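Hi, here's the filled form for the chain we discussed.

Project: internal
Contact: R.S.
Residues: 96
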Amino acid sequence: MGEGYTLHIEVKGYPLATRRTRPNVQAPQLYAQAMYTAMRLYDEHAFDMNDRRALAFPDVDVYTRLIHRTDRALARLRVGVFLIGHSGNVWAMRDY
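And the returned structure, exactly as it came back:
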């Protein structure tokens, strides 16, 4: 990414287990919220060539599966995806 760009990032964490919810059920809902934000940001900034959009998630199986299942939509929206490892390392799973 060059100078003069604005990167809009929607970050979601991995939900904690509670008596009422299981993380593997709640994570897809968080992913859906992030996708909605990506669509909204695309709509708001589609013609601004200096804006980029990305999502960021913990590197866990449920999120990586969801990312793979929606890869074409992410590409059409020009949305990148960052993953955050357990040690805090961040890397781009898909470019924006």
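Let me know if anything looks off before we file it.
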